[in-house]
From TrEMBL:
GO molecular-function terms, A-Z: 4 iron, 4 sulfur cluster binding; electron transfer activity; metal ion binding
Lineage of the organism: Bacteria, Bacillati, Bacillota, Clostridia, Eubacteriales
SUPFAM superfamilies: alpha-helical ferredoxin, Nqo1 FMN-binding domain-like, Nqo1 middle domain-like
GO CC, alphabetical: membrane
Domain 4Fe-4S ferredoxin-type intervals: 294-325
Regions crossing the membrane: none
Any one Pfam family match given in the protein's UniProt record, by short name: Complex1_51K
Gene3D superfamilies hit by this protein: 3.10.20.600, Alpha-helical ferredoxin, NADH-ubiquinone oxidoreductase 51kDa subunit
Protein name: Na+-translocating ferredoxin:NAD+ oxidoreductase RNF, RnfC subunit
Keywords, sorted A to Z: 4Fe-4S, Electron transport, Iron, Iron-sulfur, Metal-binding, Repeat, Transport
Signal peptide segment: none
Length: 448
């Protein structure tokens, strides 16, 4: 069986981001194969754990993927501060005579953003609304490579490595079956150390924040990179909980048009025409946002990566350009607008980009999570839940269609969700052996 077919059968999706089906993403020929090992968000340590403990498997798999994609240049891009991880990878590369090279990045945010990484490695700017393939590259992360390694050994994607950190007794890496309750992951880390907290799923910049009362509603998925317990008083919680109507009112009344949000925007600095300050300015003069949806400056909002630099670091007035961008994006989608990718222009990064990189530590401090920044995780715990609640949509594209019924008994690895005909999607498999007890609202529940 060819590797691409093994990837599809295993149900692998991008483990570090939105979850694009990997069998589709890697069905290409490229000049550059770039393995993202920078873990874009502060606080997360999952990829670092895998580089230390599964370097041989990762390197072997990268070589197979490089052969499949006919890549001429192959590298792992990781931060120069990852000293132990660099040593671990170098040892395997040197012993095996591997073609894989290491590309060392400065420790800045968002170094792990796919488009920023392509620019760092190749010097080429991915066009607005484009993908790395537009400039001859494809990017996949370390955890995805490890999942491909398992697929090459006929092991389907049923377990996820993730970081559990923040206000917990013992920050750890958890290996959990898909559908495991996040409450069990937190319990494995010794439980929380504060009374009032929010749950951050993902990293502090781009992750989703939920009140502790909603903890039982969330489960491990293929894209869950981490779970961070954040005290209620942390700035990022207050920032995320500000109602949209207040954000809009403050945008109209407090924006001083200093342009710092634009000057620090990673997309703008990479050469894109996105200018957040112009969008904030135009918001200030209207009561109904639909009246400015035809404005070309406003439409550039569709190229925003939602990295959060503008609101978490750049704005001196404490405004939230990202939240404004997200709101306008949704309104544009409702109106049926589709951003047309410019394939004629060669976009080039702005020269001052090198001097506007934001140190990861400083942005963590601005968000109020600095106390959780400097730590090392070496411990891993494997969870064995008696019950899992597995989503049929853990990926970009159409949800998987259930191929089991309530009352069926399944083995670990049994197919429970299939890709709809002619649709973009990914297969879903049972992460534990047991009985299917519920299929409801896009979730399949299995109990031992």
């Amino acid at each position: 069986m060819e590797l691409l077919e093994q990837i599809k059968n295993a149900g692998i999706v991008g483990c570090g981001g939105a979850g694009f089906p990997t069998h589709v993403k890697l069905n290409c020929e490229v000049e550059y194969l770039i393995i993202n090992a920078a873990e874009c968000e502060p606080l997360l340590r999952t990829d670092r754990y895998l580089m230390l403990n599964a370097a041989q498997e990762v390197i072997t798999t990268i070589e197979k993927v490089a052969k499949m994609t006919k890549a001429k240049k192959v590298c792992i891009a990781l931060k120069e501060t990852y000293h132990d991880e660099i040593a671990s990878l170098k040892e395997v590369i040197e012993k095996s005579g591997s073609i894989v090279e290491l590309f060392l990045l400065k420790n800045f945010y968002p170094a792990g953003d796919e488009q920023i990484m392509v620019l760092e490695v190749t010097g080429r700017t991915v066009p607005p609304s484009g993908i790395p393939l537009d400039v001859g590259a494809v990017v996949s992360n370390v955890a995805t490579m490890y999942s491909i390694y398992e697929a090459s050994c006929d092991v389907v994607f049923t377990e996820k490595y993730l970081t559990v950190t923040g206000a917990v007794q013992n920050p750890i890496i958890v290996k959990a079956p898909l559908g495991t309750s996040l409450a069990q992951c937190i319990e494995a880390a010794g439980g929380v150390t504060v009374e009032n907290y929010h749950i951050l799923i993902g990293g502090p910049l781009m992750g989703k924040v939920y009140p502790k009362e909603e903890l039982e509603q969330h489960f491990v998925t293929k894209t869950t990179s981490g779970v961070v317990i954040v005290p209620d008083e942390a700035h990022l919680v207050k920032m995320r909980e500000t109602p949209l109507r207040h954000i809009q009112k403050r945008a109209k009344g407090s924006c001083i048009q200093c342009q710092t949000c634009t000057q620090m925007c990673p997309r703008y600095l990479s050469g894109h025409p996105l200018s957040p300050h112009k969008i904030m300015r135009k918001m200030a003069y209207v009561n109904d946002v639909t009246t400015i949806l035809n404005d070309p400056d406003v439409q550039e909002v569709m190229t925003c990566s939602e990295c959060g630099v503008c609101e978490a670091y750049a704005c001196p007035m404490g405004l939230a350009p990202r939240q404004v961008n997200i709101y306008i994006k949704n309104e544009l989608r409702k109106s049926g607008f589709k951003y047309e990718k410019d394939t004629e222009t060669t976009f080039r990064y702005r020269q001052d980009r090198e001097y506007r990189r934001i140190p990861s530590h400083r942005i963590a401090a601005r968000l109020g999570v600095e106390q959780y920044y400097d730590y090392t995780i070496r411990e891993r715990r494997t969870l064995t839940p008696d019950k899992v609640t597995i989503s049929l949509q853990q990926h970009i594209g159409a949800p998987a269609e259930p191929v089991v019924a309530v009352g069926d008994y399944v083995k670990q690895g049994s197919l429970i969700g299939e890709i709809p005909p002619k649709a973009l999607g990914a297969r879903v498999h049972a992460s534990i052996a047991g009985k299917v007890t519920k299929i409801e609202n896009g979730f399949v529940t299995i109990e031992k």
